């Protein structure tokens, strides 16, 4: 196929040998299957801010810091240089998260480096060597749903222990290989301690997983792992070995109707954005 212009420098530098096919095109990036020597990998080409339509990006950028004070000031002013640096921070957030999560035991695509807006990482495949399907495209038995939900809760716990909240976790950002779930798409990952929206995003991530797996195993719908994990995290008591029960003590206070309505609204907006992503992924990529 025609080589995307963003990947041409990587071919010239010998990092990529061949672009085999386009895997998907979304609002934030396009992904291609590439050959790197003897290895078949994928190249995620980030779209610049003019062509990226990720909603509420500011909420995700809160708490992301740069070591260079000049760059930080430029980002705050929104200058041309500052916008370029903001893009670098956005892209590096995923690279840093992938390396960190791989190290602590979360199953993610193994990254191999990010070069001028192109992230090279392992291609996740199934038993036959084909590209692994998204969780949304897989039918599960009740037993599989319970097992995979437990795996995802464990991964989310490991992420939080590492100080990371995915921020956009859903059935569209999880692949399923022959061993189970694989977490993908982390450019919006946030710092659990430095972002004021981290708790809301964390609880939404857990809720999305609960609702998806719960359609196959209804008993999952009664669990409250999100609230349990966050309470333990805030108390400094959450570890990779912490036994979780999926329960929290009721405080018997009057229901906060506004909070419930906000949660419903957030879930509806998330559903709409997921649907838009599917449509964007199915649309042909412009040259």
Strand order of the largest sheet: 1-2-3-5-4
In N-to-C order, the SSE pattern is HEEEHHHEEHEEEEHHH
The mean pLDDT is 84
**Biggest pleated sheet:** 5 strands, antiparallel
Note the gap between the termini.
12 Å
Number of strands: 9
Fraction of residues in helix: 40-55%
What are the defining features of this structure?
five-stranded antiparallel sheet, 287 residues, globular, single chain, two-stranded antiparallel sheet, alpha+beta
Describe the overall structure:
This protein is of the alpha+beta class and 287 residues long. Helix content is 41%, strand content 16%. It contains eight helices and nine strands. The strands form three sheets. It has a five-stranded antiparallel beta sheet with strand order 1-2-3-5-4. A two-stranded antiparallel sheet has the order 6-9. Strands 7-8 form a two-stranded antiparallel sheet. A hairpin with a 2-residue loop joins strand 4 and strand 5. Helix 3 crosses helix 4. The longest helix has 26 residues. The protein is globular, with a radius of gyration of 20 Å. 31% of the residues are buried. About 2% of the residues have low confidence.
Set out the fold topology:
Elements (H helix, E strand, L loop, with lengths): L7 H5 L5 E8 L3 E8 L2 E8 L10 H5 L7 H9 L2 H25 L6 E5 L2 E5 L19 H20 L2 E2 L8 E4 L2 E4 L6 E2 L6 H17 L10 H10 L22 H26 L5
Antiparallel strand pairs: 1-2, 2-3, 3-5, 4-5, 6-9, 7-8
Helix pairs in contact: 3-4, 5-6, 5-7, 6-7
What's the short story on this structure?
The chain is α+β, with helices and mostly antiparallel strands. Helices cover 41% and strands 16% of the residues. It has eight helices and nine strands.
